[in-house]
Amino acid sequence: MITLTVDDRTIEAPEGSSVLSACLAAGITIPHLCWLEADTPADAPAACRLCFVEIDGFREPVTACTVTVENGMTVHTGTDAVRNLQKTALKLLLSVHRVDCKHCPANKACALQDIARFLGVGLTCKPFERVLKEPDVDPRHPVLDYHPNRCVLCGLCVRVCRHRHGKSQLSFAGRGFETVVGYFDADPGAAADCLSCRACLDVCPTGALVVRTGDDG
Ligand code: SF4
Ligand code: SF4
Ligand code: FES
């Protein structure tokens, strides 16, 4: 086991694990959206840019999901620099998000709401301008509706589908602001099994994937 100090607490973690994994296992909260428990520091996508920490000896804050624990490491999870980066990352996500929690199936079980509460910020995107995608709902999947303006592009749905089935029914498409997750020319036969699998629905941290009304029995 590796021994490290996090916010003046001594914790232990298995060799090779990430700082994020070590902290979460010790009950230390670090906002994150794109990390899967199976991720190693080498293969974590580091897409959400939320899990910043400061580590003694590092010149700048780093993403906790991509740094491997080391004996004697000293980690700080709540410095001003860390919080500023996390608030900026959250506001950028909210700048392309339709915040309509009352009509969202994820309301009260949403990672964005939890992170906003943890960081002490509202679900506004100021000072950024809010820009939304069209159309608001993409119905190309045979049984699921995808809501691009609720999607944080964490990629968890794409990855859990691939982990479970060897090949993902979902994929990223487009670039920059136009990036979306969807069902593009995947195997139509396999898609019929999506309702019994539901891995993507379960892992999605927001309300971006929804069983189309009438398809859920
Ligand atoms: S995904 Fe979360 S923040 Fe967005 S509308 Fe739904 S509940 Fe609100
Ligand atoms: S649909 Fe959900 S799980 Fe997939 S990328 Fe968007 S927010 Fe993440
Ligand atoms: S969890 Fe580390 S960048 Fe998303």
TrEMBL record:
The keyword Repeat applies. It comes from the Bacteria. Residues 1-81 form the 2Fe-2S ferredoxin-type domain. PROSITE patterns: 2FE2S_FER_2, 4FE4S_FER_1, 4FE4S_FER_2, 4FE4S_HC3. CDD domains: fer2 (cd00207). Keywords: 4Fe-4S, Iron, Iron-sulfur, Metal-binding, Repeat. One of its GO terms (molecular function) is 4 iron, 4 sulfur cluster binding. SUPFAM superfamilies: 2Fe-2S ferredoxin-like (SSF54292), 4Fe-4S ferredoxins (SSF54862). Residues 81-120 form the 4Fe-4S His(Cys)3-ligated-type domain. Transmembrane segments: none annotated. Residues 140-161, 182-214 form the 4Fe-4S ferredoxin-type domain. This is (4Fe-4S)-binding protein. It comes from Desulfosarcina alkanivorans. The lineage of its organism: Bacteria, Pseudomonadati, Thermodesulfobacteriota, Desulfobacteria, Desulfobacterales.
